[in-house]
Write a structure and sequence with these properties.
Elements lengths: L6 H11 L6 H21 L7 H13 L2 H8 L6 E6 L7 H7 L3 E7 L2 H13 L5 E5 L10 E7 L4 H8 L3 E11 L4 H10 L2 E8 L10 E7 L5
Parallel strand pairs: 1-2, 1-4, 2-3, 4-5
Antiparallel strand pairs: 5-7, 6-7
Helix pairs in contact: 1-3, 2-3, 2-5, 2-6, 7-8
């Protein structure tokens, strides 16, 4: 087997590089999720990326890179937390978060029914009682009082804040997963004045030679 095809080994090394403690059960679920995504993608078009090697890096490793920072922000293992993944598509990063942190309640929200159907199926297939899927536009749902609301390739920072911000509890945060730092988006967010960037956290994604970062946002003091 070539090094490129050794997905279990590459996944294990990626978790080690990211400082993640993934037991055999979690590793098996991550690989099963990737396999299921590849199979469903042929019919349901969950993602434009179809090559399994690229999916491993650009989807699985990219989502895994957020687990450590989210865990640090939400406290020690065992601390229950509520997380929404907005515009989740096939469950990225929501399904990965649910696998790695079974103590969190993770809800994947997407307006495309076939994508939420896939996530709902993964909740059963992967035995993830902490994972839910909602077929809806995020702005139509009742406020959810989340610790973290996150998105990956969903919208501009200001649009994300306007659409999803009401689902964040007062001491919670919005977290956008981005590539290159979107300075124009940050300026637009601050111009409105309701939300502000709390910090920008560079991410290292194993095997990915591209800029990635987390943008953490909190309500401006005057809007609490």
């Amino acid at each position: 087997m070539s090094a490129g095809a050794d997905m279990p080994g590459r996944l294990s090394r990626a978790c080690e590089q990211l400082g993640l403690d993934a037991d055999a059960g979690a590793m098996a679920k991550l690989l099963d999720y990737l396999s299921q995504m590849q199979r469903w993608n042929r019919t349901y078009n969950l993602t434009a990326i179809r090559d399994p090697q690229q999916m491993l890096v650009q989807h699985l490793f990219d989502s895994l890179a957020a687990v450590g920072p989210f865990s640090e922000a939400l406290g020690v293992p065992g601390a229950a937390a509520k997380v929404y993944d907005v515009g989740s598509g096939g469950g990225l990063p929501g399904v990965v978060l649910a696998i790695m942190r079974p103590d969190w309640s993770v809800t994947c929200v997407d307006a495309v029914e076939k994508k939420t159907a896939f996530v709902r199926q993964m909740s059963g297939v992967l035995a993830l009682p902490n994972l839910q899927a909602r077929h809806a536009r995020i702005e139509t749902l009742a406020p959810a009082e989340c610790n973290i609301v996150t998105s990956r390739a969903f919208a501009s920072l200001d649009d994300f804040a306007q659409l999803a911000g009401r689902h964040v509890r007062n001491d919670g945060t919005l977290v956008a997963m981005k590539g290159k730092l979107p300075e124009d988006e940050i300026q637009a967010l601050h111009a409105r004045g309701e939300w502000q960037v709390d910090r920008i956290q560079p991410l290292h994604v194993p095997e990915l030679q591209a800029e990635r970062c987390l943008i953490w946002m909190r309500r401006s003091q005057g809007t609490l």
